[in-house]
Design goal:
By secondary structure, this protein is an alpha/beta fold. Helices cover 15% and strands 29% of the residues. It is built from three helices and 32 strands. The strands form five sheets. The protein has an eleven-stranded mixed β-sheet with strand order 3-6-9-12-17-20-23-26-29-31-32. A ten-stranded parallel β-sheet has the order 1-4-7-10-13-18-21-24-27-30, with no helix packed on it. Strands 2-5-8-11-16-19-22 form a seven-stranded parallel β-sheet, with no helix packed on it. The chain is elongated and about 95 Å long.
């Protein structure tokens, strides 16, 4: 806490602007804008959208029809919220993020892929942070949910119908296939890949580049591809490092056997 306060002294945060609703922004007549909002030039707010008090919508951001944005939320430049996305209070959405695009759902029939309609939505609960160029797909029927306090780094991919618990933390390039669920306080290091319908238990941790194809128990740390318990996988790695020496020993023994 002391370090944070010292950093603020040396590099104070810029004061929040007070520009109101720019005439160069498009705001639908049926949209509702709360008090003390900043709607920057070039932003687009579609029909029936609801923007809470003290929100900042930066240039080029797109808020689709029927979206609901809670108070004190910041949506940075060129972020896109498709129709009916729900965002809680005090959420920070960075530039280029896309919330509510169609999930990757197709049925292969008669030699071609037929699109499965994606009719659900995306719900972002309070106090979340969504990194730059992160994508969160809408549910096929129900909702894709990001639990309160969860932090997603840049370039994270959340597939359709995923449900994340509270206070998860995912580093860059983590990818979740459809219908993954997590408990609270789950942590994923960079480039973790998780197969569809997997559950990550409360408080578990996944090491960088882990490939997860089965449920992870609560509180455990798994690493590797395919991912396994941390200590077990470290023993596997250490054993693999010994393989060159083992090959030499086996060849030496084969020569001895031949001589005998």
């Amino acid at each position: 806490d002391c370090l944070i306060q010292i950093i603020k002294l040396f590099r104070p945060v810029r004061e929040r602007a007070e520009i109101g609703v720019s005439k160069a922004a498009y705001v639908s007549p049926t949209a509702r804008i709360g008090c003390d909002c900043n709607i920057y030039p070039g932003s687009f707010i579609d029909d029936d959208a609801v923007i809470g008090d003290r929100c900042d919508i930066y240039p080029g951001a797109t808020i689709g029809r029927g979206c609901q944005i809670g108070a004190d939320t910041i949506i940075h430049a060129r972020a896109v919220l498709y129709d009916d996305v729900q965002v809680g209070q005090r959420v920070l959405i960075h530039a280029g993020a896309v919330l509510g695009a169609d999930g990757f759902g197709y049925k292969f029939r008669r030699g071609r892929y037929e699109k499965i309609p994606q009719l659900g939505q995306v719900i972002i609960e309070d106090d979340c942070e969504i990194g730059a160029n992160t994508t969160i797909d809408r549910g096929t029927i129900g909702a894709t949910v990001i639990g309160a306090g969860t932090k997603l780094d840049n370039l994270v991919m959340i597939g359709h119908n995923c449900e994340l618990g509270q206070h998860n933390a995912f580093a860059s390039q983590v990818g979740l296939a459809g219908s993954v669920t997590t408990g609270d306080y789950v942590r994923c290091a960079g480039q973790v890949g998780i197969a569809d319908h997997v559950h990550l238990g409360k408080g578990c941790t996944l090491g960088a580049k882990s490939g997860v194809h089965k449920d992870i128990p609560a509180g455990e740390t798994h690493v590797g591809y395919p991912a396994g318990p941390e200590q077990e996988m470290f023993r596997v790695v250490m054993s693999l490092n010994k393989v060159p020496d083992m090959r030499k020993q086996i060849r030496h023994l084969e020569q001895k056997v031949d001589e005998l």
